[in-house]
Amino acid sequence: MDVLRTFVTGTALGNFAKAAERLGRSPSAISLQLRKLEVQAGQALFEKQGRGLALTEAGEVMLHYAQRILELNDEATARLQALEEMEGWVRIGVPQDFAETWLPNLLGRFARAHPKLRVEARVDRGSHLIKGIETDRLDLALTWGGLRSRHDQVVARRSIMWIGRAGFEHDRREPLPLVAFDPPCAFRTAALEALDGNRIAWRHAFASPSLAGLWAATTAGLGVTARTVDGLPEPLTPLTPEDAGLPPLGEIDLVLRTSRSEPHAPVAQLCALIREALASRS
């Protein structure tokens, strides 16, 4: 399992030196593990690509099965550790960006591992989730933006991108049509600060309380939006600022927030699973 986890983590990070640091192993130990895996597979799993490594066809097959094996192993481990059966509720706030991608599957695996534990998930805007944490209506929440309390922890960082239809180019003679949430919204703030700082006129072309609404309006060509590429639907694409005539937007933190400084065991375990899942997607 250690070898498979090294293989999956290094492939996800695109760099086995980073995998060594994250997994707490030396680069030589990582290399030994990978050689062992290739010997066991009986085929080359990597091939040279420029200065780096790329997966061979056999490597792609191995990656697919390794991910499934690790998921099943982690679920079994969690289930065995839960023989004392944790009971009660875990109330989690989920950002809209991940509500239709990897997070529901993770919550499903967590719930199956703890059948006496009730998981209640709320999909909402970050400002509402933060209020849920502050009023103790949520045990943990994953939101975009900065730290607000000592309980908060930055678990990932993403580039903010201009998102639009392929080939979009801003005509400086007209205000930029912006698709965005009403405030408060960290992405809206980043976009307006960049536009105002570069003296680019803008207009709020479309507002929606849901991310799906923003994606739909942007797909329809009503304007551009500022977001990360998490959950990005087709046919939308990240726009290169230089090509689109727009300023760069920088980065944004993804923060794991808990209502208590020392969460009870089910919440702490779910936090650990979320951190691990995000690490493999960095």
TrEMBL record:
Molecular functions per Gene Ontology: DNA binding; DNA-binding transcription factor activity
InterPro entries found in the cross-reference section: LTTR (IPR050176), LysR_HTH_N (IPR000847), LysR_subst-bd (IPR005119), WH-like_DNA-bd_sf (IPR036388), WH_DNA-bd_sf (IPR036390)
SUPFAM superfamilies xref list: Periplasmic binding protein-like II, Winged helix' DNA-binding domain
Residues of the HTH lysR-type domain: 1-56
Cited PROSITE patterns: HTH_LYSR
One matching Pfam family: HTH_1
This protein's UniProt keywords: DNA-binding, Transcription, Transcription regulation
Similarity remark: Belongs to the LysR transcriptional regulatory family.
Descriptive protein name: LysR family transcriptional regulator
